[in-house]
Design a protein that fits this description.
Elements: H1 2-14, H2 17-62, H3 64-78, H4 85-97, H5 102-118, H6 124-140, E1 156-161, H7 168-181, E2 186-191, H8 196-209, E3 212-215, H9 222-235, E4 240-245, H10 253-268, E5 272-281, H11 287-299, E6 303-307, H12 317-325, E7 329-333, E8 341-343, H13 346-354
Parallel strand pairs: 1-4, 1-5, 2-3, 2-4, 5-6, 6-7
Antiparallel strand pairs: 7-8
The structure holds guanosine-5'-triphosphate and magnesium ion.
Length: 355
């Protein structure tokens, strides 16, 4: 310590005033630098929070094409001065045009008529507000949590099923990134052995999302790929297996039986199937309801991922699936990139449809 003091005194004595001035200048410039940098970092965190609110805005924006036809049909009903049969016809048309389906439209409008009578509603604007509230209430009754059993002591398996081109593989990639970000280790099982390119597509998503992958031989048994995937995940203590499957039409009995076998094999493994996600392309409209029925019969679907809602889909299929089959829509695909998968928020979705 003494040595250091001596050195400082000697240094001050021997150093010319010019050098001391330069040193002082350096210290003050450095100080200003630190202040600017800390301001910048404060600005960055502000920008981050702003970016988040912009992101939630963009969900609405991305849905804009979906809500267009519904919103314009509703606005016609709003121009009337009172509630007449014409108003009811216009509401019915709006719901049908939005792909809600005939049965679900009746289920929505019948209680609304009762409510309008009981509450003596005469203004179309109030009626539409009640419709919005009713549609929100109908949806939010279902739990939308992705099932993950932490206490399992073995990997959770999430099986992803659906018709050709619905967005299964892309959804797995996005989901893998999200789960990885939550701190879970992920393995992708390439159960689509039907197409040569399917394994490569999944491999790309594995790299992008920081997941491991197990692939099988082209044309091989998809059940054995899932089985191998689970075995690898178990031995490496991986938390979650995301199992891809080949697209298939819901009315192809053989292929649906193959899928039922995939589920049975997964159930018999050391791990546990905690989620079966049916991916539905929202642009397919009412056919989505039939897909949900058939895939549920084969694999006991626990949740729906509605993709391509950023396109020209009308979104009303959400109501049909939830009210008629009681399967919750858990996630929504809003584009082709890794960040374009969001949790389904019923209130936000209905509000975006109406406003
Ligand atoms: N715009 C948009 N495109 C999507 C979305 N999800 C998937 N896609 C696109 O849809 C196409 C098909 O996606 P895949 O993930 O290959 O679909 P798949 O269900 O795995 O298809 P198969 O394995 O052939 O049955 C690709 O071009 C994707 O980029 C989405 O939410 N929005
Ligand atoms: Mg695929």
């Amino acid at each position: 310590m003494l040595g250091l003091n001596n050195f400082a005194q000697q240094f001050a004595a021997e150093t010319s005033p010019k050098v001391m001035l330069l040193l002082a200048l350096f210290v003050s410039v450095f100080g200003i630098g630190v202040v600017v940098a800390s301001r910048r970092s404060r600005k960055t965190s502000y920008e981050t929070s702003n970016k988040l609110s912009n992101e939630s805005l963009s969900v609405r924006e991305k849905l804009s094409k979906s809500r267009g036809s519904f919103t314009s049909a509703i606005s016609v009903a709003l121009t009337r001065s009172s509630i007449t049969q014409q108003t009811w016809d216009e509401l019915e048309e709006a719901l049908l045009r939005a792909d809600v389906g005939v049965a679900t439209t009746t289920r929505v409008l019948a209680p609304l008529r009762e409510l309008a009578k009981a509450k003596k509603i005469t203004e179309p604007s109030q009626l539409i507000l009640e419709l919005q509230q009713q549609m929100t209430a109908q949806l939010s009754a279902n739990s939308r949590q992705l099932n993950f059993d932490q206490s399992l002591g073995a990997p959770n398996i999430w099986l992803v099923v659906g018709v050709n081109g619905a967005g299964k593989t892309t959804t797995i990639g996005k989901l893998s990134a999200q789960q990885h970000a939550l701190g879970r280790s992920v393995l992708l099982a390439a159960g689509d052995t039907f197409r040569a390119a399917a394994g490569e597509q999944l491999e790309t998503w594995a790299k992008r999302s920081g997941a491991e992958i197990v692939r099988g031989a082209e044309g091989g048994d998809p059940s054995s790929v899932i089985f191998d995937g689970v075995a690898r995940a178990t031995s490496r203590k991986i938390d979650l297996v995301l199992a891809d499957t080949a697209g298939r039409l819901q009315n192809n009995t053989n292929l649906m039986e193959e899928l039922a076998k995939v589920r049975r094999v997964a159930d018999k493994s050391s791990a546990k199937v905690t989620e079966v996600l049916l991916v539905i392309d929202a642009t397919t409209g009412q056919n989505g309801l039939n897909q949900a029925k058939q895939f549920s019969l084969a694999t006991q679907v626990t949740g729906v991922v509605l993709t391509k809602l950023d396109g020209s889909a009308k979104g009303g299929i959400v109501f049909a699936i939830e009210t008629e089959l009681a399967i919750p829509v858990k996630l929504v695909g809003l584009g082709e990139t890794i960040d374009d998968l969001v949790a389904f928020d019923a209130a936000e979705f209905v509000s975006a449809l109406f406003n």
